[in-house]
Amino acid sequence: MSMNKKERVAVYPGTFDPVTYGHLDIIRRSAKQFDRLIVAVLNNSSKNPLFSVEERKVLLTEVTKDIPNVEIDSFRDLLVRFMKSRQANVIIRGIRSVTDFEYELQLASTNHLLDAEIDTMFMMTNPKYSYLSSSIVKEIAQFHGAVHELVPPLVETQLREKYKPKTDKND
User: Fold this and answer.
1) Is the pLDDT of residue 116 over 70?
2) Is the C-alpha dihedral spanning 71, 72, 74, 78 positive or negative?
3) E strand intervals along 18-139
4) Tens digits of per-residue pLDDT, 48-101?
5) Crossing angle for the helix pair 53-63 and 153-162, to the nearest 10 degrees
6) Rounded distance, CA 54 to CA 5, Å?
7) CB atoms within 10 A of CB 9
8) 75 CB contacts (<8 Å, ≥6 apart)?
C-alpha cells in the first residue's frame, strides 16, 4: 500500500450472541468494501449473554478464518472511542427492517454527534436472513429445534452444548 493512501478500516459492532448466517453475510460483503474489517463484540454488562465475550470471539474467529482482512476484537467503551483506538472511521450496521432502520438511524446520528469524522454505512441484510436474529436462534436451540440453516456448524454444536439437558447425578 502506498504511503499517501489511507487504509480504509471499518468496524462491525454487535453482541453476536451467537453469530448467525445473517451476521456472516454482512461480514463477507463488508470485508469486500474495506482494507480491514474489525468485527467488534460488545461487552455489555447490562445484557445476560448465553456466550461469554471470549466464546463469541472464538466462534467469530473460527467462522471468519477464510476472510483474510477480518479481525475479531471486543470493546466495552463508547464505540466511537474504540474506533479511534483502531484508526477506523466507518461503522457497519446490518438492516433487516424499517424498525431496525429507525433505531439504527438514531444510533448513527448519536455517533456522528460524538465524532463527526465517523460515518455509518447501512447494509441491507440478504432477504433470506431478514427474519433472523440471535434471539430467535437461541429460542429455537433452547427447545432443541433445528438451527443448522441459521448458524454455522460450529455455532450449532456450541448451542447444543449450552442447552444440553442437565442430568441428575443421583439417578
Assistant:
1) yes
2) positive
3) 36-42, 70-75, 90-95, 119-124
4) 899 999 999 999 999 999 999 999 999 999 999 999 999 999 999 999 988 889
5) 150
6) 34
7) 18
8) 13, 40, 41, 42, 43, 82
DSSP state of 63: H
Catalytic residue numbers read 23, 47, 96, 134
Whose cell is 427492517? That residue is 97
Q: How many CA atoms lie within 13 A of 57 on its CB side?
A: 13
What is the mean pLDDT of the segment spanning 119-123?
Answer: 96
Residue 47 Cα distances to 15, 104, 133, angstroms:
9, 19, 16
Rounded CA gap, 59 and 57, in Å?
6
Q: What is the model's pLDDT at position 90?
A: 98
> 132-147, pLDDT tens digit by residue?
999 999 999 999 999 9
Q: Are 90 and 122 in contact (CB under 8 A)?
A: no
Other Cβ atoms within 10 Å of 7 Cβ, number: 10
Q: Is the pLDDT of residue 2 over 60?
A: no
Residue partners of 44: CB distance under 8 A and separation at least 6: 15, 76
Task: Read off the DSSP letter of residue 51.
Answer: S
Could you tell me if 22 and 95 are in contact, meaning their C-beta atoms sit under 8 angstroms apart? no
